[in-house]
Task: structure prediction
Amino acid sequence: MPAKGKGKGKKRGKGNSNNRDPDDPIPNYKILPFIPDILSLLPVKSLLRFKCVCKQWRNLISKPDFVATHYAHSSALQRKVNSSVIIQTRHEESSDHAVLLYKFPKSFVELENPFPFFFPGMSIVGPANGILCLFQPPWGDVITLWNPAMKMSRMVKLSKTKPVENVHVIVSIGLAFDSEKNDLLILRIFCVGSKSTVPNHVEIRSMKNALGWDELKTNLDFYIVDCTCDAIIKGVPYWLAHITDPLYGLREALVRFDVGKMEFEILPMPEYIADGSKKKYLANFEDSPGMLIWEEKDGCLVHVWLMDELEGWRKRRSIGPLFGFTTILSCLWNGYIVVEGNDGMPILFDPVAYSIKARFNVVNNKKGSYFIFECPESLFQIEGMVTVKMPTARESTRKRMLRECDPYFMR
Amino acid sequence: MASTTETKQKKMLILKSADNDEFEIEESVGVQSETIKNLVEDGFTFVPLPNVYTKALIKIIDYLKKHANKTDSNDEEIKTFDKDFVNTTFDDLFELVSAANYLHISCLMNMLCQTIADRIKDKSPEAVRKIFHINCDYTPEEEAKIRKANAQAFEGQFDESLD
Result:
């Protein structure tokens, strides 16, 4: 893996020429160059605690190349053991938004999430480099960036742009990570309907650019109906979209945002679903785009496709036949899929062993309100992030939060 | 047992530790180390290792021999060997990780780093300082400030033991 090798090389160089206190009585001075190799394997909580071991460790733990190596390790761990499956749902009675961390084999921990719990809608997009973006659909209000492992968040002010009536149907939010510039980018696409004569209005917010949102000119016409991107692969957001084809009329396509070129790119869909009659789920398969395609009927096969950058789409295998599920909620990085059972509850399924691994039955939560994704632990922080505080007194909290959120709404 | 004629045909290498002890091993065992492999490709059969001490080298040769004979059937045996291999003191592990890095044996390096990480992850900063022989260079005020800024990481009980 090139990224890993690069990181290690840098660290070694630093380690050898470290500017330690000459009085520091470390007998095993030889091992110092390997400290980053060891620490980059630790959970975020341990690393935050070990910042107070000494100044050298604190500096190391904040360095961008260490943060990148750590995230590469934590992503690799995620593929092996699903250490961090996050479930978004709503409480049965209050309808409050809840975000839970699932721990194998069957326990849940509610995470302190920064989004105001009482708003009517909350969507999550991510992760990009361990950061999730919470917001309110359909116009992408109250954009909140959140690092769940570090329990830190910040809200992001919107631009003055407003959707145009009868032109824009939804705002779709995408998250991207530019590893060259170590910068997180938020995309806000004011989506037009398929009969529109004007293109989508796209705005981009670089978290390193304190000036705010920039308009992104695009010549491509594509139509998005979902309020979030459908997958983020290696920091690049992908959308299932439609394009107008001169021969066939409206047809499905995949759209992605090329972070290096800062432009959109249209990709084909697997041949199989050119007619658009099947259900599909876009997934991250070992850092490549993958697609699950199935027919909406009991006992159906789920076809798994994988996209190769050079050779295009290839069918990998078929899973099933599957019975007793209504839809596919998620596809985890290790290949497990999460389906919604007939009772509305999510089921974790291993398609290779053809067995049920877990049932995500969260007590007191609404059936059918689940959204499931993975978020490897990350040390990545954005300027202005503060520690998430769980609200205490409900009524006063609501008032305070409403006041605080006011500037983050489109007005 | 293997016949003497067979042993003669095998290419052998001599490794010399930092404290001047010499060890003869089969070339096929030695080349699992990238450092040794490069020297062998340049025609060397005598390999001085000025950064690796005898104590660590004996253990590492053991490891290389075991892993050179890896087959599908002795998977469990190797797992048990690896488990015993890392079941030692922190200072020994540091010595080994230093040697594995110098010799460029990446699978051993990964295993040792993962072992150390797993063993320190629930420890307190004080215990970690002692294990790594680090003197705290913060003033009490500075340390209090960092603890406050990362208060959530200090919730709960931590392992104070040094093994």
In short: The longest helix of chain B spans residues 54-68. The interface with chain A takes residues 51, 91, 94-95, 97-98, 101, 109, 113-114, 116-117, 120-122, 124-125, 128-129, 132-138, 143, 146-147, 150-154, 158 of chain B (CB under 8 Å).
